[in-house]
Amino acid sequence: MQRHGSARARRLSRSADFMAMFAVFCVLMVIPSGVTRLASSDVRITSRLRGTVTVFQVRGPSDKTPHPVWVWRPPGPDSASIPVMYLLHGYPGNGSQAFDSGLADILNQRLRQGYEPFVVACPDGNGEHHSDTEWANSYDGTDRVMSRVVGPDVAAVEGPHRRARANRVIAGFSMGGYGAMNIAMQNPGMFGQVLSIDGYFIINDLSGMFGSDAAAVARNDPSAHPARARGMHVILEEDSGDPLTLVRGQAEWMGGLLAKAKVPATVRVAPGTHSWAFALEALQDALPSVAAYWQQSAAREASPS
Question: pTM for this one?
Answer without folding.
Answer: 0.85
